[in-house]
Amino acid sequence: MNMTFLQELFNSITQRDALLRRRQGEIVAPDHAQLIKACHALLESDGEASSIALASRALAMYRQLGEEERRRFFECLETEFAAEPTDIDRAYATYREARNNANLQTLFDACEPRRQELFRRLNLASNGTYELVRMREDLLGLLREPRSDGKELNAIDADFAHLFGSWFNRGFLMLKRIDWNTPASILEKIIRYEAVHEIRDWDDLRRRLDARDRRCFAFFHPAIGDEPLIFVEVALCKGLPDRIQPILSGESAGERDIDDPEAADAAAFFGISNCQTGLRGISFGNFLIKQVVQELKQELPQLKHFVTLSPVPGFSQWLASCRTDESLPAELRRTLEGLDSPDWHRDPEQSDRLKAIIKPLAARYLVEEKNSRGLPLNPVARFHLGNGAELKRINWLGDVSAKGLKQAEGLMVNYLYVLDDIERNHENYIANATVACSSEVRDLNRRARKMAKGENIK
Amino acid sequence: MNMTFLQELFNSITQRDALLRRRQGEIVAPDHAQLIKACHALLESDGEASSIALASRALAMYRQLGEEERRRFFECLETEFAAEPTDIDRAYATYREARNNANLQTLFDACEPRRQELFRRLNLASNGTYELVRMREDLLGLLREPRSDGKELNAIDADFAHLFGSWFNRGFLMLKRIDWNTPASILEKIIRYEAVHEIRDWDDLRRRLDARDRRCFAFFHPAIGDEPLIFVEVALCKGLPDRIQPILSGESAGERDIDDPEAADAAAFFGISNCQTGLRGISFGNFLIKQVVQELKQELPQLKHFVTLSPVPGFSQWLASCRTDESLPAELRRTLEGLDSPDWHRDPEQSDRLKAIIKPLAARYLVEEKNSRGLPLNPVARFHLGNGAELKRINWLGDVSAKGLKQAEGLMVNYLYVLDDIERNHENYIANATVACSSEVRDLNRRARKMAKGENIK
Amino acid sequence: MNMTFLQELFNSITQRDALLRRRQGEIVAPDHAQLIKACHALLESDGEASSIALASRALAMYRQLGEEERRRFFECLETEFAAEPTDIDRAYATYREARNNANLQTLFDACEPRRQELFRRLNLASNGTYELVRMREDLLGLLREPRSDGKELNAIDADFAHLFGSWFNRGFLMLKRIDWNTPASILEKIIRYEAVHEIRDWDDLRRRLDARDRRCFAFFHPAIGDEPLIFVEVALCKGLPDRIQPILSGESAGERDIDDPEAADAAAFFGISNCQTGLRGISFGNFLIKQVVQELKQELPQLKHFVTLSPVPGFSQWLASCRTDESLPAELRRTLEGLDSPDWHRDPEQSDRLKAIIKPLAARYLVEEKNSRGLPLNPVARFHLGNGAELKRINWLGDVSAKGLKQAEGLMVNYLYVLDDIERNHENYIANATVACSSEVRDLNRRARKMAKGENIK
Amino acid sequence: MNMTFLQELFNSITQRDALLRRRQGEIVAPDHAQLIKACHALLESDGEASSIALASRALAMYRQLGEEERRRFFECLETEFAAEPTDIDRAYATYREARNNANLQTLFDACEPRRQELFRRLNLASNGTYELVRMREDLLGLLREPRSDGKELNAIDADFAHLFGSWFNRGFLMLKRIDWNTPASILEKIIRYEAVHEIRDWDDLRRRLDARDRRCFAFFHPAIGDEPLIFVEVALCKGLPDRIQPILSGESAGERDIDDPEAADAAAFFGISNCQTGLRGISFGNFLIKQVVQELKQELPQLKHFVTLSPVPGFSQWLASCRTDESLPAELRRTLEGLDSPDWHRDPEQSDRLKAIIKPLAARYLVEEKNSRGLPLNPVARFHLGNGAELKRINWLGDVSAKGLKQAEGLMVNYLYVLDDIERNHENYIANATVACSSEVRDLNRRARKMAKGENIK
Q1: Which residue of A242, A422, B131, D403 could cross-link A395, Cys pair, CB 3.0 to 4.6 Å?
Q2: Domain holding A443: CATH number?
Q3: Higher model confidence: residue B12 or residue B346?
Q4: A401: pLDDT confidence band, cut at 50, 70 and 90?
Q5: Is the pLDDT assigned to residue B255 strictly greater than 90?
Q6: Is the same domain home to D143 and D13?
Q7: Which residue has the higher pLDDT, C177 or B456?
Q8: pLDDT (average), residues C378-390
Q9: Buried/exposed code over C172-206 (b: 16+ C-beta within 10 A; e: otherwise)
Q10: A286 pLDDT exceeds 90?
Q11: For the segment B104-162, what is each residue's pLDDT rounded down to a tens digit?
Q12: What is the rounded distance in angstroms from the CA atom of residue B430 to the CA atom of residue D183?
């Protein structure tokens, strides 16, 4: 292939790079057509020597594309780098005649979208893996937009997902403890990526991490260096914690305060945050929790309970729908109007009245309400139940922050990981969508059923 | 699926493991049928929770299989875990009707041998990657055997190669310097894996590594820990080295001895060893050399030449064929008989006579002789020329060890890596199988041509 | 000795510790008399087994003493743990009779204050070294107070200084680079200890550290872990920098902005901060600068100039005295009144007038004004000139912060470290208090002399 | 001071250095007079800038001195760098007049041999600490020689000991685990320094270190890098081990073999080796054992017994003296003649006869026999009893190697470290030289007493 073309292409890019750094804005960035040209060149490159250089160049070009050009680039990816129908037909015909491994291999290769090989080759560049993760992040952004007018960009996403599933294999992930001795370059990412309970600043971070009864662990991948993939925050406590505010403010968690970690009997997972949007659907959370449980048991053999203190996003919305559901008893719906008075949770009487009906309804929401695939409607429940955990307890006024009140009327939930039950719970969940739950939650759910029939409402 | 069966299976295995450790030999190991059953279970497993456990169990069973049982296991893999023809037919029919991405994806999935998903799931086990590399090593051993009577085990190898190509992506490899401060656990593997010039013991290793003018670098993969994948040994010197013995004995390399690394102008790569048979064909050597060149330039900016001192395996064999080639001048063939006298290389006159005709013949062998694919016959030449290096010099009596005399009548060769030429050389080699070589080698080759016609033989 | 007493003592302390943590303020802390008792016990202890425990206990007690009790403790140290006059007299008499090594050793031992052995034994406790450094910090605080009514606490300080000089030997110090990858636990100490130009918060720190043209290095001591002893901040630049504000705001330093470190030709030391008050007088600054120069030359061989951008504390005060010095020409003193107008430095005309006379006066201040020991009056000048640096340049409006204007009317100074001259400059400084300076500074000083005589004032 | 002289001196040394490396033997090394001159220059040097250079030069000269020149150097050190009698007299007179701290300080300084300041300054050189340790090693060698004709080199040794006691303070030592992942550069030193049971080669080392039931720990000092100061080898076992051979051969230690460390209940210290002769008398062994006990308890909380398997050097010699001691019963002495028959320990009957009397005699030797200072005659016993351990058990045929038979007729001993008793045992040992021992050992000793009176001998 023509190295001169490439060399010129490259020179023009890199010079432009330099210029861009100096006089931003004056220069016209490369367009998607140039990048597509570079991608073809990369796929046609017949050896490793030039492939690395070409991959680096292509990724550098991509970074300079504006949003609209990126969309066009993806659209070209979809059409120009798909599998070739005539190749498939020919390969199938041959396979049909002689069904041997060689012919099958040819057919398989013909069916593989050429994008997959393109992505594998882009991955040769230094930092290529991370750049591809960010490229998929861009793609997911486009997929969310309404105007994705029929263009089948989903196929590209499937290619990413296929490759990332292989590259972000559990065996390649490295668990690291995060604490106050962790490099600042990583800690600032923890601040940025915390998705459950916002970390405001370094002092806030320190309150969460730098106490004897706190732990934080993250997964890293060797090819993307200092970027955490997912992390979990843990508070050591005595008994199961029922409120998030004391934990976030750096006070002791759990029923009683503990002097030192050796006195704790429970580890509470109070925040699990995915860091890389571009790795959506490549799940590590399950492995993370289990590996962290092992680490903690190693360090503190006396720990007995591994439990979450989890939010219930979507519950308020569901509850609102109850209030307009005329099949429900009027009294019940009237009581729920108490939620409309401002600061209801600070009024003990009001709060008690609401608690008596909302806790049962929450049990019903979590245990009975299913989505179109027959799985629990609540996404956090899906995650933990799918991991084999058990729905242990519903905590009234567990999160009285604005966000907590807004999304779940202040409710929080404990999911319990009982090591001996995990496999069985998981199997039952997968096979029958069975929600493993404690007798306490079962009782609440039973009560909700009676309430719905007009019984039992005080 | 039935966890009880699996649990029992697992228990029986692990107990047996323990027993085996104690009273070796008395116990009957699991057979391939049990393992195949476990593999089916793993593929059918519907979640991560049990998959890890199942994968670990399956790999533990595999380790206990004897050689014959392993062969049978692979044979079952070939037949039972291939793609399903009826699925392919059905998917193709659908795709034919509506050629959209979803239907293509279904066809692609149908064509993928189920082994690939099996291997991906086995990789969930701790240390799974390394176990799979060793499993392929076993497979390659079986493939080499003559009695591979038609069984298409090659298809399994293709699956391994496909996955390993993705997992052992350049971006995931970590370059580490190996020296006398390296952990003994790694150094003992360097001793074991050195394939070019045997390292006899720890003292020998120390001679090679622990001098100011020596360097050694290896690639590691995060998922297989302390096992090096490939390593290269380097001697810093003044001028291009022409003999291996001074280097191996820890004397200074190169034309003149050097007091310190800063005085060197050349880095000589005198041994590149692949460590993992199971990664055959997954080439890192190319990347290794280029990354090491960068490391060395960083540390010692004054280095000018990056060169190998390489063996010429197969040359003696080719030369032997010349001696029976009646198209060659009789005088030439008679001179070659000098090789029959014992210790010919210690007899200066004899050696000079042979040198005059063997060096040209070697040039011819390396430059002109091609294999069935039109590439150089000599495998070491293929590797370095394919990387973009240039055949720089042929060294008479470069390796007078028994091995060196046996495989190449003592010849060694320098391949030169000229950074500015690498890409062009590589392109020409790929496109036209052009052998980049110095004028000195070209002259030798020209002389060989004349010799073949009976000219120029002194 | 009586372990029971000690055990009881210890128990009462540790229980109290625990109590104190719980109900702060209610408990009476131990008093100096108890601590002095524990110190005697430690000195009398006859073996290592109990010494470590005793040392830990004594240091724990010390930490609980209030300020007044600490003063009393030091007063007791001075009187009860000094050398014993009668021992000295006896030892001297014996030595006088027979002047041999054994008798000299006895005399030497008799003269050593018993505090030194006490401190050596306290150092057996974990973290003992750091606790002793902080103990000296307390002592220095007391020494500064006016009411140190004749008590010779200075003798205790001499004992500390003697031991610390040995313990904080250059060979034991470890140089570490500080950057954005440094653990947060260390970075927060950098924020706290920065003494020259305050670091406001983490963002400010990041601006100073986390750019390709910044470096920071600190000395650590193995026995006091994560606590830095001293650190220096460096900006890489082209040419000598003359203003501090662009450096602190994270803009490029030096005459022109630099794209990358490789383009820099100068390294500017713009902040050197001692971290441990308790190590006053144990100088590492000299070693630090020289070791950092070596590190930088190693990393960036093209660097040519190693220079400081230093404050001139005390200059404003000296200049104020000029204004009342009637021996100086009236015109000159009148011009200086310009400093009284607010924001004079923002008025170009005013500023130019002042510059014309203040720069020469600054040269005079730095070169000619000496303290009682005949050394430069300015402490920063003493430090760098004593290290062998040269006074290179006086920078008008180099620091226009409130602090910079207040202490030096905005002046900053460059001291230049020319490697080949360091030893000679140092020798001349030590022998003759010679101030090495550039011809530019010499000219300014000459001009100041003329100005003082009423010549040359525009 | 005259830098030109020094510069010349240095140049001549370093050039010579280079020459020496090239043409060894032709050049005359520097003599002690030159070195003494350099030492004076170092002491007179008035600043840090030149001191480091001077210290490096002086140490480089010392390294080149031959043995005889080193002796002369030490002799000059003794006379020329002692304290100055006239200074002492003057300082004492002043102190006598006014007994204040300042005058005491002056007297103290006058009494300090100038060597101490010299050594402190030599310590400024890179690697100075290690060079000084080796210098003392040379000195100790000279002190052992008979012809130390009256020269008081002991005073120099006292200076070294004084400084090293401060520099090798417990707080500065770093404990590191040594295993098969330790750098080879350190492991080769473990092989070299093992003093109790020789390590023959790397395979032997691996047998000792690289098993799940083995541990090894060493102390390092930050200023002397990779050189271990002392190390201890540990075998994890069930019950107290009684024979060294199974441990050394890599078999399991203890009564029963153990599958994994978690099954062990005892940690057996079977080799403690001091590595640096030059640090004789600066004891770390005590701290090492205690810190290792803590490490092990941390890792393996189930460990109950911390015990040594120790040699009994000197016992054979003492036993030989018994055989000529006519106060002992003739029958007893006759039985001991059994030791003269070759391979007596392989003859069960013979062995049993000897065991019956030798074990009691060993108890007596260890418990009753004292040296001139009233402490146990056996040095290993002194070490462990001084640390607070208890003499637990005497093991017949515990070490049947040639060395073991020669020094102790094959006996080995267990000293037990009972954490709660350590302090009390230590106190009793220091105060009353009490030997803490088990009832078993006490019984044996009692029996020995009866045997001596002619009772109880079978």
Answers
A1: A242
A2: 3.40.630.150
A3: B346
A4: very high
A5: no
A6: yes
A7: C177
A8: 93
A9: bbebeebbbebbbbbbbbbbebbebbebeebebbb
A10: no
A11: 989 999 999 999 999 999 998 888 999 999 999 999 999 887 665 546 788 899 999 99
A12: 43
Residue D374 has pLDDT above 80, yes or no: yes
Which residues in chain A have Cβ-Cβ distances shorter than 8 Å to C180? 183-185
Q: How far apart are CA A18 and CA A369, in angstroms?
A: 57
To the nearest whole Å, the CA of A185 is away from the closest chain C CA by 5
Note the pLDDT of residue A24.
44
* Residue D147 confidence class, pLDDT cut points 50, 70, 90: low
Query: Which of D122, D138, D167 is a domain's end point?
Result: D167
- C111 burial type by CB count under 10 A (0-12 exposed, 13-18 middle, 19+ buried): buried
Residues 6+ apart with CB under 8 A from B318: B365, B369, B377
Identity of the residue in B108, B128, B171 whose CB atom sits nearest the CB atom of A129? B171
Contact yes or no for D369/D376 (Cβ under 8 A)? yes
Same domain, yes or no, for D16 and D48?
yes
Q: Residue B355 has what pLDDT? A: 95
Give yes or no: residues B150 and B230 share one domain.
no
On whether both C292 and C393 belong to a single domain, the answer is: no
Instruction: Flag whether B216 is in a domain.
Output: yes
Which two tokens mark D415?
Answer: 């000293």
Residue A244, domain CATH: 3.40.630.180
Structural domain includes residue A457? no
Tell me how many domains chain B contains: 3
Residue with tokens 């330039």: B297
Please list every residue in chain D whose beta carbon sits closer than 8 Å to the beta carbon of residue C423: 3, 49-50, 53
Angle at C222 between CA C216 and CA C224, to 5 degrees: 85
Which of B107, B155, B387 is facing A49, going by the closest CB pair? B387
Residue B115: inside a domain: yes
Condensed to tens digits (0 to 9), the pLDDT of residues A337-358 reads 999 988 899 999 999 999 999 9
Q: Inter-chain contact D423–C3, Cβ cutoff 8 Å?
A: yes
pLDDT at D7 over 70: no
Nearest CA in chain A to B386: A47
At residue C298, what is the residue type?
A: Q
Contact (CB<8Å) D180/B184: yes
Give the residue, C195 or A60, on which the prediction is more confident.
A60
**D interface residues, B as partner, C-beta within 8 Å:** 21, 180-185, 187, 201-202, 206, 210, 226, 259
Q: What is the pLDDT of residues B24-59, one digit of tens each?
A: 444 456 889 999 999 999 998 766 667 888 899 999
CA distance C4 to B442: 94
Mean pLDDT of chain A: 87
| Whether the predicted pLDDT of C5 surpasses 80 | no
Distance CA C46, CA C117 (A): 13
pLDDT tens-digit map of B196-210 = 888 989 989 998 888
Q: Are residues B117 and B19 in the same domain?
A: yes
CA–CA separation, D34 and D61 (whole Å) = 8
Determine which of B188, B212, B260 to mutate to test the interface with D (most D C-beta atoms within 10 Å). B188
Q: Are residues C134 and C197 in the same domain?
A: no
Shared domain for A352 and A427, answered yes or no, is yes
pTM for this predicted structure: 0.83
Closest residue, chain B, to A100 (C-alpha): B152
Q: Establish if C458 belongs to a structural domain.
A: no
Residue B165: list chain A partners with CB under 8 A: 120
CATH of the domain at A81: 1.20.140.90
Kindly list the partner chains of chain D, i.e. chains with 3 or more CB atom pairs below 8 Å. B, C
Q: Which of B101, B171, B427 sits opposite A155 (nearest CB)?
A: B101
Q: Based on the domain organization, do A139 and A269 belong to the same domain?
A: no
B105 contacts A158? CB cut-off 8 A: yes
The pLDDT of residue D32 is 92
Domain boundary among D308, D335, D370: D308
Listed in order, strand segments (DSSP E) in B346-443 are: 390-395, 412-417
B108/chain A closest Cα distance in angstroms: 5
